[in-house]
Design brief:
Strand content: 15-25%
Largest sheet: 7 strands, mixed
Structural class: alpha/beta
Distance between the termini: 47 Å
Low-confidence stretches: 219-223
CATH class: Alpha Beta
CATH topology: Rossmann fold
CATH architecture: 3-Layer(aba) Sandwich
Number of domains: 1
Oligomer: single chain
Number of helices: 6
């Protein structure tokens, strides 16, 4: 039986999970209408305090479907006109969930950007799982796009500085966040809100949170 086209990449990513017995498991997400490789751990796994601390310091963000990303992917699936036929950038892509949702909704091209090279690999692997393609941003050489997608990044001021620069260059945006800390000069309008949670369910991540979906504050007109 032939190996999956991404079998090598999956083995590399599993080695980066850094938990005994942890593996990547395909999981279908109904509301988002897509599948992801997410971290799967043994329910009986017992870790001492030091091991837990090491894990949280090196958390593989790309192995989770974060609440903001799930909400943004759901919103795109329900409102494909935002991305259909457009060039899209998924900023701080993590698993690639938002960019993949855009590709499935008919985006002309999808670019993914993240500081973690493992996230860029995971986004490509997850895209392949869903039968679509995403292109990787190399360094800070961002392509010219029509719309910016970002989820679960506004809480991080260091990340928000880059986000603010991109929003000055990209005409349209869709942002998702549970607890906004907005960069100065970034004015948003709430389009929708929904309750969701992060997967896999580890510790406090199993709590459902309210996520807002935001666009530019000025009136939006579909092309």
């Amino acid at each position: 039986m032939a190996e999956s086209p991404f079998a090598t990449e999956l083995r590399i990513l599993e080695q980066k999970l850094l938990l005994p017995g942890a593996k990547l498991q395909r999981q279908w997400l109904d509301n988002e209408v897509l599948a992801l490789w997410l971290m799967d751990i043994d329910d009986q796994l017992q870790l001492d305090t030091q091991a837990i601390g090491r894990f949280w310091q090196t958390l593989p963000f790309w192995a989770f479907a974060w609440a903001g990303g799930r909400a943004l992917a759901t919103y795109i699936a329900n409102n494909p006109e935002w991305v259909t036929g457009k060039r899209v950038l998924d900023f701080g892509c993590g698993s690639g969930i938002a960019g993949i949702a855009a590709a499935l909704a008919g985006a002309e091209e999808v670019w993914v950007a993240d500081l973690d090279d493992s996230a860029l690999m995971a986004a490509q692997v997850n895209a392949g799982l869903n039968g679509v393609e995403v292109q990787v941003v190399e360094g800070d050489q961002f392509p010219e796009v029509d719309i910016l997608l970002a989820a679960d990044v506004l809480y991080d001021i260091s990340g928000s500085a880059g986000l603010l620069e991109l929003t000055s260059q990209i005409p349209e945006w869709l942002l998702a966040e549970s607890n906004r800390i907005l960069p100065e000069g970034l004015e948003l309008r709430c389009l929708d809100s929904m309750e969701t949670s992060t997967l896999p369910r580890i510790g406090d991540f199993d709590e459902a949170v309210e996520i807002g979906i935001y666009c530019r504050s000025q009136e939006f007109r579909l092309n």
